[in-house]
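Sorry to interrupt, but I need a hand with the structure work. Can you supply me with one protein entry, sequence and fold together? No commentary is needed, just the two lines. Leave the record below and I will have a look.
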Amino acid sequence: MSSTEFSPYYAVIFTSKLSNFEGYAEMAVEMERLAKQKEGFIGIDSARDEVGITVSYCRGIKSIKVWNENLGH
């Protein structure tokens, strides 16, 4: 997905330091599933090694606020 197809958009960047946390991969899949259900969601990109970096693309600030308030998130 090219996020420029959806301009203008907002990018939310989340970084984390990974450890031997069991269940992290499953939780990441669940977070992506939940994010896709939110109005304004455009896409998501992730990289995970020693540091996790996830970039979520949204159509507006309202979408970001709604996602931030999601208890599952």
